[in-house]
């Protein structure tokens, strides 16, 4: 107990403070820190062949662009993690229907993240539609960080295809179909709107997806979503991209 | 009389808060209002006469001009009651914002989102009149900026309620989970300006954008920094400089604030009146919270329950601070229905 101020440890804290610059002290003591988790869902079916390099490039630069926007707004990121879910079609691709990474902590694991993304190949998928809703459900079930003063839980999805309805073949799902999937779009909607890890202030869903089922229904009805109706984001203007980054970084 | 207003843009020249309104009219009535253009939902860029600006930047300034003219025209009316004119004001602002958006929005974005609004801004303020030794005050609010009443005895007392999605959150909860705004002025929605009437003793009116109170570690720190920068100043101008220097070190957003003290004749009188409150805030809230924050930093990941202890301390101290902070809200002043509704 400190005899001067009556607070345990306070004087030693003051001594430590004197070793730091005023700006360091201010940012550590006062500014709230953000924990940012990003899950990137990438359609890696053969129809994406002409777009996959651009999508991979956009995925890799997304971290830097978001960090840049948040830095400019003095929003201090304490930890930023990125996870990748590449999806294809459970009705055509068997065990290749999903390629999922763990969370990479950036910038420390940037090389591993880049290697994982760069290694994705556009293949399989059969005919349209694809298994985008299952990828979205798995993204929502991620082990989101509970730490940090403020959080951002961001899902970004790139696809050129509509989705299989979740109720497709309800009684006879394909062999590698994942456990714990919602039975229909209503249940998936509940996963988004009522998931305690995805709060109204923290969650953002960015869809670079065509104006087709179920993306059109999701963007019309779910909270905190932004859809750029397109084939996997092609044709996105820099102004609209900046608008998306601002809507992620800022309070809304 | 002390009239204090500050507008600190996060990025020079690109601040989306308008200069606050802080005015005393000839009949002795006055007004403080802040306008926070919403940069998250209003980041769409427009070009006019060769200048490029965001919808948020434009909206806050447009609404500020309209509100300033509105008060200047109406505040002098005998017995002016803002609530009686609110429907007319809302309709006028809707028309103004829609007209402006129509003029600006030549190439609408392809983005579809409920997160993006055209020309969004908050508005939070108070019109007050001094009668028979007390204030009659009407707060006006849309969005998540805030208006307060400040006294040496009870400190900062909240007068407005944030318009946010979900159940109402207290100031500590909202600090650690910036909510999503459910209502603000914009070009497309049927927004609402909530009016509440108060009968108050002598005191100071304060309106602040969320850059003032959203980046502190504990709600009492906003009041502390406001008073601490004042206590370190010999004039209102010096207070402004100290306030700017303090808030620019940590605020993650534009900071704008308007404050009017009608009774205090100068900053010397204000410092004398608030010296005890300033000391109490330091001893009771700021120092214990700071000390605990340092323990968390010093633990460098080997937490051993320190974060939990810090969170418990926040809750305990918040329960104490909120007794006065929320005292005027707990009296449940009734929202005043618009006269024509």
Features:
heterodimer, A: 252 residues, alpha/beta, 7 strands, disordered N terminus, B: 341 residues, 5-stranded antiparallel beta sheet, 13 strands, globular
Q: From the alpha carbons, calculate the radius of gyration of chain B and give it in angstroms.
A: 20 Å
Low-pLDDT ranges of chain B: 336-341
Q: Which bin fits the share of residues in helices of chain B? A: 25-40%
Task: Determine the most extensive contact between two protein chains.
Answer: A-B, 50 and 47 residues
Q: Can you list the strand order of the major beta sheet of chain B?
A: 1-13-12-9-10
Work out the helix count of chain B.
9
Distinct helical segment count of chain A:
8
Strand and helix order of chain A: HHEHEEEHHEHEHEH
Main β sheet profile of chain B: 5 strands, antiparallel
How far from one another are the termini of chain B?
37 Å
Q: Proportion of β residues of chain B?
A: 15-25%
Structural class of chain A: alpha/beta
Percentage of residues in DSSP E strands of chain A: 15-25%
Binned, the helix content of chain A reads: 25-40%
Strand elements of chain A, count: 7
Q: What do these coordinates show?
A:
The complex is a heterodimer of chains A (252) and B (341). Chain A is of the alpha/beta class. Chain A contains 8 helices and 7 strands; from the N terminus they run H-H-E-H-E-E-E-H-H-E-H-E-H-E-H. Chain A has helices at 10-18, 22-29, 52-72, 110-118, 132-140, 185-194, 215-221, 238-249; strands at 33-43, 76-87, 98-100, 104-106, 150-158, 203-209, 225-229. In chain A, strands 1, 2, 3, 4, 5, 6 and 7 form a 7-stranded mixed sheet that branches. In chain A, strand 5, helix 6 (185-194) and strand 6 (203-209) form a beta-alpha-beta unit. In chain A, helix 3 packs antiparallel against helix 4 and helix 3 (52-72) crosses helix 8 (238-249). Chain A is globular. By secondary structure, chain B is an alpha+beta fold. In chain B, 38% of the residues lie in helices and 21% in strands. Chain B contains 9 helices and 13 strands. In chain B, the strands form 3 sheets. Chain B has a 5-stranded antiparallel sheet. A 5-stranded antiparallel sheet of chain B has the order 2-3-7-8-11, covered by helices on one side. A two-stranded antiparallel ribbon of chain B has the order 4-5. In chain B, helix 1 (55-74) packs antiparallel against helix 2 (86-104) and helix 7 (267-299) runs antiparallel to helix 8. The radius of gyration of chain B is 20 Å and the shape is globular. In chain B, 49% of the residues are buried. Mean pLDDT of chain B is 91; it is low at 336-341. The chains are: A alpha/beta (252), B alpha+beta (341). The interface between A and B is large, with 50 and 47 residues.
């Amino acid at each position: 107990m400190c005899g001067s101020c009556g607070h345990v440890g306070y004087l030693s804290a003051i001594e430590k403070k004197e070793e730091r610059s005023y700006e360091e002290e201010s940012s550590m003591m006062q500014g709230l820190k953000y924990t940012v988790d990003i899950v990137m869902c990438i359609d890696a079916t053969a129809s994406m062949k002409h777009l996959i390099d651009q999508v991979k490039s956009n995925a890799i630069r997304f971290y830097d662009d978001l960090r840049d926007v948040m830095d400019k707004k003095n929003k201090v990121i304490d930890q930023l993690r990125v996870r990748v879910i590449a999806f294809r079609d459970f009705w055509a691709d068997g065990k290749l229907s999903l390629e999922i990474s763990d969370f990479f902590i950036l910038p420390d694991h940037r090389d591993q993240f880049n290697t994982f993304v760069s290694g994705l190949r556009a293949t399989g998928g059969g005919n349209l539609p694809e298994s985008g809703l299952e990828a979205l459900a798995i993204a929502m079930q991620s082990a989101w960080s509970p730490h940090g003063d403020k959080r951002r839980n961001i899902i970004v999805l790139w696809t050129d295809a509509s989705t299989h309805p979740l109720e497709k073949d309800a009684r006879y799902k394909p062999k590698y179909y994942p456990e714990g999937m919602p039975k229909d779009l209503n249940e998936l909607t509940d996963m988004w709107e009522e998931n305690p890890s995805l709060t109204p202030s923290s969650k953002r869903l960015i869809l670079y997806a065509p104006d087709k089922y179920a993306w059109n229904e999701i963007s019309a009805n779910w909270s905190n979503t932004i859809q750029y109706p397109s084939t996997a984001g092609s044709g996105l203007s820099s102004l609209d991209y900046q608008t998306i980054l601002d809507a992620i970084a800022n309070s809304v | 009389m002390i009239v204090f207003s500050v507008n600190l843009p996060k990025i020079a020249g690109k601040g989306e808060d308008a200069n606050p309104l802080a005015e005393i009219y000839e009949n002795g009535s006055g007004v403080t209002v802040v306008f926070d253009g919403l940069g998250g939902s209003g980041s769409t860029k427009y070009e006019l006469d060769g200048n490029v600006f965001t919808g948020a930047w434009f909206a806050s300034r447009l609404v500020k001009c309209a509100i300033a003219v509105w008060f200047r025209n109406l505040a002098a009316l005998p017995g002016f009651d803002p609530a009686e004119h609110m429907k007319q004001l809302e309709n006028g602002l809707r028309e103004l914002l829609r007209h402006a958006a129509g003029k600006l929005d030549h190439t609408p974005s392809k983005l579809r989102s409920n997160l993006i609004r055209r020309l969004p801004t908050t508005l939070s303020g108070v019109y007050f009149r001094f009668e028979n030794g007390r204030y009659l005050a009407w707060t006006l609010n849309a969005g998540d900026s805030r208006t307060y009443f400040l006294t040496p005895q009870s400190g900062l007392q909240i007068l407005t309620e944030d318009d946010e999605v979900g159940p109402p959150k207290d100031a500590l909860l909202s600090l650690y989970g910036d909510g999503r705004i459910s209502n603000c002025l914009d070009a497309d929605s049927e927004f609402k300006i909530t009016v509440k009437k108060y009968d108050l003793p002598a005191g100071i009116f304060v309106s602040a954008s969320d850059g003032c109170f959203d980046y502190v570690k504990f709600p009492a720190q906003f009041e502390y920094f406001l008073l601490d920068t004042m206590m370190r100043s010999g004039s209102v101008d010096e207070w402004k400089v100290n306030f700017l220097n303090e808030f620019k070190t940590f605020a993650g957003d534009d900071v704008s604030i308007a404050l009017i003290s009608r009774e205090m004749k100068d900053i010397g009188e204000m410092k004398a009146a608030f010296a005890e409150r300033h000391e109490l805030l330091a001893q009771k809230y700021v120092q214990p919270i700071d000390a605990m924050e340092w323990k968390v930093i010093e633990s460098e990941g080997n937490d051993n329950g320190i974060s939990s202890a810090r969170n418990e301390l926040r809750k305990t101290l918040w329960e104490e601070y909120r007794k006065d902070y929320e005292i005027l809200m707990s009296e449940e002043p009734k929202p005043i229905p618009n006269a024509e509704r």
